[in-house]
Amino acid sequence: MRPLGKAASDDDRPLIERVRKGDQDAVRALYERYFDRIYNYVYARLGRAQDAEDLAIDTMTRGLTRLDLFQDQGVAFSSWIYRIAHNATIDHYRRHGKVVLVSLEHAPALESADPSELAVEQLSNADLHAAIRDLTDEQQQVLILRFFQDLTAAQVASIMGKSVGAVQALQHRALGSLERALQGRAVN
Amino acid sequence: MPEVERLERLAERLRAVEPYVPPPGAKIRGWNLVLAAVEQSNTARLRVHPIRRLVLATLAAAVLLVAGAVAASADSLPDSVFYPIKGVLENTRGALTFGASDRLAYHLDLARTRLTEAQAMFARHRVDLADQALSALDDQLNDAALVIQAEKQNDPTVGAAMENRLRQAIATHDAQLAGLQGQVTNPTALNAIMQARDRAAQALQTAGKNGKSNGNPGASPNGTGQGNGAENSPRPTPKH
């Protein structure tokens, strides 16, 4: 897996202080640090390059021009920027409609498909992305942040406003749902 | 295969997924747009500097506070915390009142106000404050008399008309004080009311005298009759 660059962390504060003082280099540094990650997150959610590009730019613009609001949030900048991206994604769904939003969390496994027979190594990236987009909003979010963005459970918990335990439980259910979704695709 | 193991394999497969990477053109376009927005935001922020915003907010709060206190003091009574503000406003109004007729109207208006306050204080059994209000009432009538006295020297006809206005005002006040006297039983209160009626009558006598011969130290030293009630009266507004 090609890394997405420096992992999101709390050491953005010095940069943020410089941005507040009008330091353009600091703006550039934060942009470089987060643009690819936000683009990747939004693309994984929407599946369309042009939309992902627009929403990633919109997210970075909002994040870097509204740092006065960030100060009041009491969370890391990384969590804040991901929340902006998430909200932008939700707004996008509202404006353009979401293709699939059916929870597979409690869907029974197909009898004709044996879970142990699912050869995950042979699944294409496109299949995985498509199957993830069949999951609920929260399940998509936790899988993308944990595995595509390589964030810790604690970081995901901060972004989603949940406890670490809740994120771990959600991740477990999301993987189960994803497995069933992939089985369904394999059967069809 | 156990579920835990299957899900762990799936998780590992997800970690191996190649990330979507933005095309270089998108990143450059994004940077140009972000930079322009940040610069515009900085310009707007500089337009209203935080310190300037703080000063403006403080000024607005002060204006609201003063306006609120002034509004609250307008009808305040001697036992109110806003009453001293009322006195300041009255004195300011007096300093800005010119001309004998206007000054007479000013003193008679304040005399009416003091009488109303005295009635309210008697109703609340605050005899001490009622007594102060009645004393201030008499001070206003005395100041009005001095204004009339001075005006008589300038224009006897106008002075006589003003004296008539004072007489009518004192008659009205006396009637009200007489009514009040019949309602109270407290000896101190009765004494204060009787003294107030006597002093009102004396003020009318003062107004009828010649300005140069009355020897009242409160009269205007230059004989123009523009004595300021707030300055001449020992108690321009009652204090408590």
Structure explained in plain terms:
The complex is a heterodimer of chains A (188) and B (240). Chain A has 188 residues and is mainly alpha-helical. In chain A, 66% of the residues lie in helices and 0% in strands. Chain A is built from nine helices and no strands. In chain A, helix 6 crosses helix 9 (164-187) and helix 8 (153-160) packs across helix 9 (164-187). The two termini of chain A are 29 Å apart. In chain B, 75% of the residues lie in helices and 0% in strands. In chain B, helix 5 packs antiparallel against helix 6 (127-154) and helix 6 (127-154) runs antiparallel to helix 7 (156-183). The model of chain B is unreliable at 212-240 (pLDDT under 50). Chain B is built from nine helices and no strands. With 240 residues, chain B is an all-alpha fold. Chain B has helices at residues 3-15, 24-47, 50-74, 83-95, 100-123, 127-154, 156-183, 187-208, 229-232. Classes of the chains: A mainly alpha (188), B mainly alpha (240). Chain A binds chain B through residues 1-2, 4, 19, 22, 24, 27-28, 31, 35-36, 39-40, 43-44, 49, 52-53, 56-57, 60-61, 64-65, 115-116, 118, 120-121, 123, 125, 128-129, 143, 147-148, 150, 172, 175-176, 178-179, and chain B through 1, 3, 6-7, 9-11, 13-23, 26-27, 29-31, 33-35, 37-38, 40-42.
